[in-house]
Amino acid sequence: MNIQNDRRALVKSLHYIFGVTLSVFIAFHLLNHLFALDGPEKHIQIMEQFRLVYRHPVVETLLLLVVFFQIVTGIRLIYKRDAQAIAEKIQVYSGLYLSFFLIAHVGAVLSARYIEHLDTNFYFAAAGLNYYPATFIFIPYYFLAVASISLHVSAIHYLKTKSKPAAIGIAVVGIVTSFIIILAFTDSFKWLDMPLPYEQFIRVLI
Ligand code: HEM
Ligand code: HEM
């Protein structure tokens, strides 16, 4: 029993350390997406700056490893957790969505980059958000990703501090940010045209 508890505590500490590390990337990544409010060129210009750091082979390898271990440790934590309180349930379900999203999202980015030889810039994400019928899948897909990350953090904050207003505040800021990113990527649902290779990529997919 004690060995099991020790192991769980270790997995939880690793999930915590990887989680904090990954949050740094996520913060810059979402900030990058908010720059799309100023148009695709601005988004791409900022992404090119950020890529100098996270596309460095050492940084990118570490980032992809952290993503992998975050999913593995998260699933292990769910497996031995009897979620009772609403905050615990939110933590588990947001974690499950994040597992699915991270595998799909990182897999899509890497295969578009190395198999399709596409530059995975603004237009790569926007293609799915702007063309019918893909838009019906990609709007909830991206919206729920950003909402889940904020719900996950909000639940952690509540379970650690029991402060309801702060937890609700974190969730609301995240959900509003998620909506703003969707607005930015779709020109407020007036829809955007993509360069041909990106349009073809999404039309073949869906
Ligand atoms: C994407 C990024 C993620 C971040 C930044 C993150 C971050 C965190 C942090 C900081 C904690 C608190 C640990 C503690 O209480 O010391 C936590 C808890 C938890 N996370 Fe994640 N997590 C992420 C993804 C996931 C995934 C993919 C899953 C699972 C499928 C998951 C499942 C859980 C569970 C079940 C707990 C509760 C642990 C417990 O108290 O028993 N998380 N997460
Ligand atoms: C919880 C939310 C998200 C997480 C955890 C996440 C995570 C990641 C990770 C780990 C990468 C791989 C970076 C690399 O190795 O190059 C990536 C790339 C990318 N993501 Fe996300 N992402 C999230 C949300 C989004 C959203 C909402 C969008 C757009 C609507 C998006 C668009 C992209 C694009 C375009 C790339 C390629 C970046 C590049 O080529 O430099 N992501 N994301």
- CATH level-four homologous superfamily name: Fumarate reductase/succinate dehydrogenase, transmembrane subunit
Number of helices: 8
CATH class identity = Mainly Alpha
Total domain count: 1
Q: Helix and strand string, N-terminal first?
A: HHHHHHHH
* Cofactors, ions, other ligands: protoporphyrin IX containing FE
Mean pLDDT level: 96
What helical percentage do the residues reach?
A: over 70%
Anisotropy-based shape: globular
Keywords: Membrane, Transmembrane, Transmembrane helix
GO cellular component, one term: membrane
Note the main attributes of this structure.
3 helical TM bundles of succinate and fumarate reductases, transmembrane, transmembrane helix, membrane, binds protoporphyrin IX containing FE, 206 residues, SQR/QFR_C/D, 8 helices, single chain, mainly alpha
Question: Overview of this structure, please?
Answer:
The chain has 206 residues and is mainly alpha-helical. The chain has a single domain (2-205), classed as Fumarate reductase/succinate dehydrogenase, transmembrane subunit (3 helical TM bundles of succinate and fumarate reductases). The protein is 83% helix and 0% strand. The chain has 8 helices and no strands. Helix 3 (57-79) runs antiparallel to helix 4, helix 4 (86-114) crosses helix 6 and helix 6 packs antiparallel against helix 7. The radius of gyration is 18 Å and the shape is globular. The site of one protoporphyrin IX containing FE has 24 residues, from helix 1, helix 2, helix 3, helix 4 and helix 5. One protoporphyrin IX containing FE binds next to helix 1, helix 3, helix 4 and helix 6. InterPro entries: SQR/QFR_C/D. Keywords: Membrane, Transmembrane, Transmembrane helix.
